[in-house]
Amino acid sequence: MTDVEGRTAFITGGGNGIGLGIARRLARAGVKLALADVDVDALARAKAELQDITQVETYKLDVRDRDAYASTAEAVESALGPVSLLFNNAGVAGFPPAAKLTYEIWDWAMGVNLDGVINGIQTFLPKMIERGQGGHIVNTASGAGLATTSAGVLYTTAKYAVVGMSESLNAELASSNIGVTVLCPGPVATGIVQRTADSTPKTGINLSEEQKKNMEKGLAAATQWLEQGTSIDDVGEMVFKALQENSLYIHTDRMAEDMIKERTKALLAAMPD
Ligand SMILES: NC(=O)c1ccc[n+]([C@@H]2O[C@H](COP(=O)([O-])OP(=O)(O)OC[C@H]3O[C@@H](n4cnc5c(N)ncnc54)[C@H](O)[C@@H]3O)[C@@H](O)[C@H]2O)c1
User: Fold this and answer.
1) What are the tens digits of pLDDT across the range 216-232?
2) Ligand 1 nearest-atom number relative to CA 64
């Protein structure tokens, strides 16, 4: 899609990190922005930064909340016009070990990382198709949606699902003028680790002192690892290029290459002669 100027983009998790990087790049291309997030301070900062470049509206929205999603979509479209660029990007990471998971944590993590994407598709795709004005959807998954990394079972479950959903939507919408891209980042320099630690439900986990220490160490290591990752503005640039070229996949680096090769090799090796 090259005719993005004047279109309206809806970006979840648009207040911080990758969502903000995408918003900055789209603003420079003359796209009107609807930024949705649970972090109202971040939304206010993003609006202050971008409002001199393009029209920006911000919405406090928890992507798990379907009713709020529907009313937000109505508010967005009456303020900025039809949404034809959709970025299902909000996400959380860095979960407790498998043995310490609770239903509450499963529901929260899958709610944000998977249901959030489903809710975005369900809210906007039928209208995009009906209007026939074309469009593009970018779902943010992860390298952890392509191979098993150290990201943990919850994150991996949701991100594999987002990759599968995106590939399937891409195939189904191939004959329409709505493109689908799945963003599979390696490490990106954002504050996701701390933000996730602050918002993870704490009830019923009951970590031992040693497990708490290990988790803290893990959080510090993950924070350090991400700090050296790709910048959010470089990711914004990659997303913009994928939009223009209608690419299905975006990798931000080659970090997952060996793991994807190993997984593919193992899958093929398991097939009968
Ligand atoms: N940073 C990385 O290294 C990395 C790598 C792979 C994939 N990702 C994915 O990229 C996406 C963006 O992550 P990021 O690194 O920019 O993180 P971030 O924390 O900087 O930004 C995520 C944003 O989502 C918002 N958010 C969280 N829960 C929400 C909810 N329920 N409803 C609405 N908004 C919510 C947060 O407030 C935050 O502003 C996520 O889906 C993440 O899984 C990130």
Assistant:
1) 888 899 999 999 999 99
2) 31
